[in-house]
Amino acid sequence: MTMSIESQGDVAVVVLTGRLDSTNAADTESKILEQIEAGRPRIVVDAAGLDYLSSAGLRVFLVVAKRVKANGGALALHSLTDHVREVFEISGFVNVLTVCADRDEALSRV
Amino acid sequence: MVPTKTLRLANELSEIRRLAQAVDDFAALHGVPAKAAYHVNLAADELITNAIEYGEAAPGRRIVVTLRREPDSLVMEITHRGIAFDPTAEAAPPDLTSDIDDRAVGGLGVHFAKTFLDGLSYVRRRGANRLILTKKL
């Protein structure tokens, strides 16, 4: 999986491409948490290129969501692909995390 | 004769990706819809991850995975030696309703496996743990 981080104002936009699973969850999590530690607790995750997500990957988003909240920020994900959306719905995480249709909506929610 | 494929995975999480590719290839070859293969792969990922992280198998032990394209289903058997460990038995039921502050992630993997499969069974036999995953087509 590749991860790139762009800035839009003071929002960190994390673009994920590929698989997020037990092999790379810890590394992905620590890289996103670094943004918060650097003073950027408003985070948008662009999931358009994310084609696979397991529970290990979901856990990353949960940890980040809790941490941004504790730091006065917010997390929003957008452009989920069908398989990833299914995982969000089966787990009920679609009700706990902010899931948006596109980048603009996500930016407005953080 | 039922098409089958057997892989021997090393006891490492990265092998799950190799398995996923093999499942996708097998599915394409034998008329299994991509979505069914995806669900089986996700279930296998969750169960094998649990087995590797909690099953305490010796590092050199292989995990043997056999795929079978039955007339109306895709069946995957996962066998690994180690302590008696049933990845389908949850320590606690998955948390599907708590809000963000109280939410826990435990048990979700097995919940996914059970939801995306039509059958999931575990048996301990001759020092090995065997899981049978079934996806109806």
CATH superfamily of chain B: Histidine kinase-like ATPase, C-terminal domain
- How far is the N terminus from the C terminus of chain B? 18 Å
Mean pLDDT of chain B comes to 90
Mean pLDDT score of chain A, rounded?
96
SSE string of chain A, helices as H and strands as E: EEHEHEHEH
Beta-strand proportion of chain B: 25-35%
For CATH, the homologous superfamily of chain A is named as STAS domain
* Count of helical regions of chain A: 4
The geometry of chain B reads as: globular
Number of helices of chain B: 3
Can you list the strand order of the major beta sheet of chain B?
1-2-3-5-4
Q: Largest beta sheet of chain B, briefly?
A: 5 strands, antiparallel
Which word captures the global form of chain A?
globular
Structural class of chain A: alpha/beta
* CATH fold descriptor of chain B: Heat Shock Protein 90
Explain what you see:
The complex is a heterodimer of chains A (110) and B (137). Chain A has 110 residues and is an alpha/beta fold. Chain A has one domain: STAS domain (Transcription Regulator spoIIAA, 2-Layer Sandwich), CATH 3.30.750.24. Helices cover 42% and strands 34% of the residues of chain A. Chain A has four helices and five strands; from the N terminus they run ββαβαβαβα. Chain A has helices at residues 25-37, 55-70, 82-91, 103-109; strands at 2-8, 11-20, 42-53, 74-78, 98-100. A five-stranded mixed beta sheet of chain A has the order 1-2-3-4-5. In chain A, helix 1 links the parallel strand 2 and strand 3. Chain B has one domain (4-136): Heat Shock Protein 90. Chain B has helices at 15-29, 34-54, 108-116, and strands at residues 4-9, 63-70, 73-81, 119-125, 128-136. In chain B, strands 1-2-3-5-4 form a five-stranded antiparallel beta sheet, covered by helices on one side. In chain B, helix 2 runs antiparallel to helix 3. Chain B starts with a strand and ends with a strand. The mean pLDDT of chain B is 90. Classes of the chains: A alpha/beta (110), B alpha+beta (137). At the A-B interface, helix 2 and helix 3 of A face helix 2 and helix 3 of B.
